[in-house]
Amino acid sequence: MIWFRKKKKDNKKEERSQSKEAARGLLIFAHPTTVISVEELLRDEGYNIRVVSPPPTYRTGCDLSVEIPLESEAAIVELLHDVGLEPMDVVPITSEGMEPLQFVRVKDFGKYLMVRAANMKMTVDKETKIIVNISGGGCPDVPYLATSMIGQRLRDAPDPAEVGFSLCAYSLNTAREEIIKLIGD
Amino acid sequence: MLLLAGSVPVDKLPLHMGPIRISDDAVEIGDARLEINRGNEAMMTAACHACDYMGLDAPVGLVAGDIGKREGSEAIYHYLIENLPQMNVDVLTMHYVMPDINLNKQVMASVDKMAKRPILIADAGSMYVAKAGGIATKYDVFTPDLGELAFLADEKADHPAFTRGSIFHMEDNVVELIKRAYETGNAPATMFVKGSVDYICHNGEIVATIDSPSVETMEPIGGTGDLITGMISGLIYAGKDPVEACILAGRANRRAGELANPTPATQISEILKFLPQALKEIVEASE
User: Fold this and answer.
1) B-chain residues within 8 Å CB-CB of A150?
2) What are the residue boundaries of the structural domains of chain B, listed by start?
3) What is the interface pTM, i.e. ipTM, of the complex?
4) Could you tell me the pTM of the whole model?
5) Which tens digit of pLDDT belongs to each residue from B20-43?
6) Final residue before a domain boundary, out of A92, A114, A135
7) Cβ within 8 Å, pair B220-A138
8) Could you give the 3-state DSSP secondary structure of residue B17?
9) Interface of A with B in 32-61 (CB under 8 A)
10) Is A176 found in the same domain as A144?
11) Are residues A85 and A116 in the same domain?
């Protein structure tokens, strides 16, 4: 009897959860860094969104998607179409997506400041604001981004969100934004 | 054969395969000349130094250009899928590639068809995709840094960017993260964990630690981990067992850093110049 009551309670919880999930959908994109632009745009427009991992059927090992309120799907897709950021697909939520890590670690080397986000580290000369090293990461755009950004001042360096394609580029952008917050660009 | 596979940051560079030749500022494979950079070029140069010092033939490189658009990585995956069963590879190191769980599993299926199974080493994107695909235990050696170790320890994450905050914050407890990575089946037999203290692990146990010389300014330098992976590859190809290769590579990497006396702005090419001397000193001292 106790077991039966417990099960009944769990069912209600599950129904609430399913109802909540049914009100949300996922925009699927080809590259994780497209999601950065979409995230900025939709937040600026006032939409309640989350950046999360896509459902298992869409996962390759390096992907991001955007969770949106389904009642706004038509308006959001039209907005994205207008700016050339159309999603590959829009799917209902079937499982809880994981959010990318936003925590950072900061290490002060005196003349230099290093910030690490997830597996990516960026080091900058505090005085000149020039990027002197990029370390960590494992996706192919990381060496390309390192070559493009090292030696450039923060404000002049290519934006990893624009020239990168991977989750490593997403994390590198998180590190870059934190450095700019700390010392300016 | 020691086969080193991975992408290089040259857009649209077609697939190249052949013995790796090194000079002061580049690696060459066939007609492709690749400037020394963090990533595969640094890893390949370190492996060449290790093979040269141990009196072995040069490693063979399998590279294609990829700046994140996947084409180069896919070319590498497909080459391995189609050709590995006919190849005589003793050690296969896979490094920077765009993670693709499905293609990587096909590569492993081709490995299973080889007459003699090679020793498998993975770092960077190749390590991420192995873990994300749930096949880490099919490999022999991983070389994670602390951020990547937290990813291996988080059974729910399929990329380091998705490591849960609660586990990311456990990085001060490296021993616990190593334990979790093994317990969840997300670590191969041997693991080299790179950090202020390097941990060499085997079958779930920490079998060695390396903490000196301590060159703190090595941490920001992109490519120091690539040197370790390259040296481990060359030393295993020379017949060292994976744990011994990890210990020698870790010590040689720190000695090269000490000789280079770097700042956080030093580039990996400056450390690489001291690698032959460092390897010689460390290997001789171990004999």
Assistant:
1) 222, 267
2) 2-286
3) 0.90
4) 0.88
5) 999 878 999 999 999 988 899 999
6) A92
7) no
8) strand
9) 53, 59-61
10) yes
11) no
